[in-house]
């Protein structure tokens, strides 16, 4: 109790002292993150609230209203939110990421090119396949090898598995509780047990598909540069068809149900960025395109997208040169590739009234549902076409070159670039995950949302802002994996 | 999962907390990946602190704390002490928490040089020189290994504690599991270098089952003979640099693995 008060005082003193100049940044959120995890509650005047969010009391002198969540829940990783409202106007919005950096780019240097898929998978336990695929494509680009046919099909199939499990985790376990007013899916299950069980069932199908193709769901072991260590047999995959067809039917009825949720009214003009493939809904390959005319090859990524250091966050913010923030992920893919969805999925989107293009981020929950359905239907199609290849991988011999890879992780485009020497040793690495790219847009959403809903009571406004962050399914572990930001201490 | 009488202590449902330090979230995700058991588990324990899953925070102390991740910052070194002080049983889960994880590769470099490669202003970096396992900071009641942890080990550990029994977690090598899986030894038959003989069981020998040499994501097994395996690798034509790299992965800083450079040069 005392400790909490102490922290609160320290925080307030700091805010009086400076108007958002230099902050202790990353560690600010951490000040609260101690011991039994309830200190921020004990420092909260509203002590019957059992969440870690905190809407500070009004400051009478300046009518300053501070909203903060010291550790965001139901996101992957450690982050905090801070909003400052002065006289009803939003003055400051920060999405802080204080997850400790892990320096992947540094220790990739000196490793063999073939080790990149296993090492970079460890950036994220939720989307390891995305890291394995982007790094494999980058290494194959450097070695001028193209993976086609059944090996490529298997890659697309395992990636469908990851979309299903990652999207279902977010939709049912992390995001849906916001719409129905619960703290967690576990609490939600007491009243909506059937929905949670159906969600878990869909999630399980995605995980099963990954495990079947590559050994296990978290950090699968069968992916390598050039393909797979062993290609699964046809009949191993056929055994999945019944489950997938069940999951497809579940998702269709879930989408009908989800479409009746209450979506907060909120639209902004976004620039959406995703891959675009000549005939597929994009997963593995394509050009990078945007809703405002960007159309580039993957290797041009860094000519058009820059990353900035932000002092209060352990993750870089990406923006389009001369344009600003943009959005990657399900909404971007859906808006830019609607014509590549198959007719059945399109007809469901029309039936449930999901508009196209869609620019209300709160409807991302529906778009994620549509992508789950797409991934299930696509997986069924791929399995029916699959013939076990005689070779499970293409031999990749390294050459001194730079390689680029960009695939559609569940949360959006994941860019990798590596420099390799003639012996196959990595001499430089750069990785840009989706959450770094969305971070600026998340803050802008919070800015507009807090302004628009400033009349809501503090606890409701805080919750709505949390929900707005979760619209993006932020993966903070990903965003912080390679930190180049600095923390200044005064 | 335990009988009615044993799961309650003084008529109270045990409280479970899940803590995160430097990690990828994959081990705590494994708990949510228990799709068939999750809701039943939530019936038997009160999920009192699990930020990845819930915004509700229930005050400690906690009966069981699962700790994911390694200690890499001064703040986290303090925080783990506080976690310990509010936990009856503390279980560290996964390679980061039990061995420092992949980020412990920094432990083998000159930190100053390392930081200046990455940072324009290395003097601003507030990170510890080494990434260390939880057991280097506080007493740990049980360690569950793996990168990631086996989700059924999590279930076994929690249900054993609820029932007052000793968890049945293997400490023998992957070879035992591999034989039970009915695999032909890929090292003997095909000459594929495999770390199974020195690696703790727990994954069900998935790599050899997919015709890949084990890469030791579960870390060293009991009485692992690393020198002998390294010698065998050299006979198979693996150079010393590659052998060092094989051991310098997710469990690089595990007690038996960290001396690998010295061992291969003998």
Report what the structure shows.
With 490 residues, chain A is of the alpha+beta class. Chain A has a domain at 106-438: Cytochrome-c3 Hydrogenase, chain B. Helix content of chain A is 44%, strand content 15%. Chain A has 18 helices and 14 strands. A 4-stranded antiparallel beta sheet of chain A has the order 1-2-3-4, covered by helices on one side. A 3-stranded antiparallel beta sheet of chain A has the order 7-8-9, with helices on one face. In chain A, strand 5 and strand 6 form a beta hairpin. The longest helix of chain A has 32 residues, at 149-180. Chain A is globular and about 70 Å long. In chain A, 57% of the residues are buried. With 266 residues, chain B is α/β, with parallel strands linked by helices. Chain B folds into 2 domains: 4-162, NADH:ubiquinone oxidoreductase-like, 20kDa subunit (Rossmann fold), CATH 3.40.50; 174-264, no CATH class. Chain B is 36% helix and 11% strand. A 5-stranded parallel beta sheet of chain B has the order 2-1-3-4-5, with helices on both faces. Chains A and B meet through helix 4, helix 7, helix 8 and helix 9 of A and helix 2, helix 3, strand 2, helix 4 and helix 6 of B.
Task: Kindly report the oligomeric state of this protein.
Answer: heterodimer
Side-by-side strand order of the widest sheet of chain A: 1-2-3-4
Q: What is the mean pLDDT of chain A?
A: 84
List the uncertain runs of chain B. Answer: 1-9
Bin the helical content of chain B: 25-40%
Structural class of chain A: alpha+beta
Summarize the biggest pleated sheet of chain B.
5 strands, parallel
Question: Biggest interface in this structure?
Answer: A-B, 78 and 74 residues
Integer tally of domains of chain B: 2
- Helix amount of chain A, in percent? 40-55%
Structural class, from secondary structure content of chain B?
Answer: alpha/beta
Instruction: Indicate the CATH architecture of the largest domain in chain B.
Output: 3-Layer(aba) Sandwich
Strand content of chain A: 5-15%
Low-confidence residue ranges of chain A: 1-51, 54-61, 481-490
Q: Please provide the ordered H/E string of secondary-structure elements of chain B.
A: HEHHEEHEHHEHHHHHHH
CATH topology of the domain at 106-438 in chain A: Cytochrome-c3 Hydrogenase, chain B
Rg from alpha-carbon coordinates of chain B: 20 Å
User: Largest sheet of chain A at a glance?
Assistant: 4 strands, antiparallel
- What is the approximate shape of chain A? globular
């Amino acid at each position: 109790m005392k400790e909490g008060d102490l922290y609160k005082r320290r925080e307030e003193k700091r805010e009086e002292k400076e108007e958002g100049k230099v902050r202790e940044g990353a560690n600010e959120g951490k000040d609260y993150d101690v011991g039994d995890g309830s200190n921020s509650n004990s420092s909260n005047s509203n002590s019957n609230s059992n969440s870690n969010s905190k809407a500070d009391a009004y400051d009478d002198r300046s009518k300053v209203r501070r909203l903060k969540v010291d550790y965001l829940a139901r996101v992957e990783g450690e982050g905090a939110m801070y909003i400052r409202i002065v006289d009803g106007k939003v003055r400051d919005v920060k999405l802080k990421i204080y997850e400790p950096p892990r320096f992947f780019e540094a220790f990739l240097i000196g490793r063999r090119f073939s080790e990149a898929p296993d090492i970079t998978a460890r950036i994220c336990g939720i989307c390891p396949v995305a890291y394995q695929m982007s790094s494999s494509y980058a290494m194959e680009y450097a070695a001028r090898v193209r993976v086609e046919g059944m090996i490529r099909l298997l890659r697309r199939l395992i990636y469908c598995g990851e979309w299903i499990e990652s999207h279902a985790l977010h939709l049912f376990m992390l995001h849906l509780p916001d719409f129905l007013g619960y703290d967690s899916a576990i609490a939600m299950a007491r009243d909506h047990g059937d929905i949670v069980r159906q969600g878990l069932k869909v999630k399980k199908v995605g995980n099963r598909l990954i495990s079947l193709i590559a050994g296990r769901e978290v950090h699968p072991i069968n992916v390598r540069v050039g393909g797979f260590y062993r290609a699964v047999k046809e009949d191993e995959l056929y055994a999945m068809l019944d489950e997938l067809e069940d999951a497809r039917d579940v998702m269709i009825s879930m989408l009908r149900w989800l479409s009746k949720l209450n979506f907060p009214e909120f639209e902004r003009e976004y620039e959406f960025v995703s891959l675009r493939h000549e005939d597929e809904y994009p997963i593995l390959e394509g050009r990078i395109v945007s809703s405002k005319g960007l159309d580039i090859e993957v290797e041009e990524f860094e000519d058009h997208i820059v990353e900035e250091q932000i002092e209060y966050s352990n993750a870089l913010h990406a923006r389009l040169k001369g344009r600003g923030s943009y959005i990657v992920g399900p909404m971007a893919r859906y808006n830019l590739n609607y014509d590549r969805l198959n007719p059945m999925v399109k007809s469901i989107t029309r039936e449930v009234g999901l508009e196209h293009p869609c620019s209300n981020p709160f409807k991302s929950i529906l778009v994620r549902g549509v992508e789950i359905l797409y991934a299930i239907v696509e997986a069924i199609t791929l399995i029916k076409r699959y013939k076990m290849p005689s070779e499970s991988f293409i031999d990749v011999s390294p050459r001194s070159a730079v390689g680029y890879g960009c695939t559609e992780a569940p949360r959006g485009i994941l860019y990798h670039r590596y420099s390799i020497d003639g012996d196959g040793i990595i001499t430089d690495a750069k990785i840009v995950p989706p959450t770094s790219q969305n971070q600026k847009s998340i803050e802008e959403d919070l800015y507009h949302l807090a302004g628009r809903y400033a009349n809501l009571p503090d606890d409701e406004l805080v919750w709505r802002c949390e929900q707005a962050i979760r619209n993006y399914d932020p993966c903070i572990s990903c965003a912080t994996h390679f930190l180049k930001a600095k923390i200044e201490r005064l | 999962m335990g009988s009615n009488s044993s799961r309650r202590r003084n008529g109270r449902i045990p409280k479970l907390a899940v803590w995160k330090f430097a990690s990828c979230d994959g081990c705590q995700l494994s708990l949510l990946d228990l799709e068939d058991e999750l809701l039943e588990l939530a019936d038997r324990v009160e999920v009192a602190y699990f930020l990845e899953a819930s915004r509700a925070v229930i005050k400690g102390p906690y009966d069981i704390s699962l700790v994911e991740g390694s200690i890499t910052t001064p703040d986290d070194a303090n925080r783990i002490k506080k976690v310990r002080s509010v936990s009856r049983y503390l279980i560290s889960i996964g390679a980061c928490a039990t061995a420092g994880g992949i980020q412990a590769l920094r432990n083998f470099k000159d930190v100053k040089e390392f930081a200046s490669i990455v940072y324009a202003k290395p003097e601003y970096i507030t990170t510890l020189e080494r990434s260390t396992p939880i057991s280097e900071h506080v007493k740990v009641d049980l360690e569950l290994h793996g990168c990631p942890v086996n989700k059924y080990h999590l279930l076994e550990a929690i249900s054993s504690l609820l029932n007052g029994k000793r968890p049945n977690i293997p400490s023998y090598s992957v070879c035992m599991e591999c034989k039970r899986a009915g695999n032909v030894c890929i090292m003997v038959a095909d000459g594929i270098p495999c770390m199974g003989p020195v690696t703790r069981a727990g994954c069900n020998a998935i790599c050899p089952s997919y015709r890949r040499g084990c890469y030791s994501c579960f870390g060293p097994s009991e009485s692992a003979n690393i020198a002998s395996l390294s010698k065998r690798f050299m006979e198979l034509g693996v150079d010393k640099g590659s052998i060092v790299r094989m051991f310098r992965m997710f469990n690089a800083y595990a007690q038996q693995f960290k001396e690998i450079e010295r061992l291969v040069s003998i």
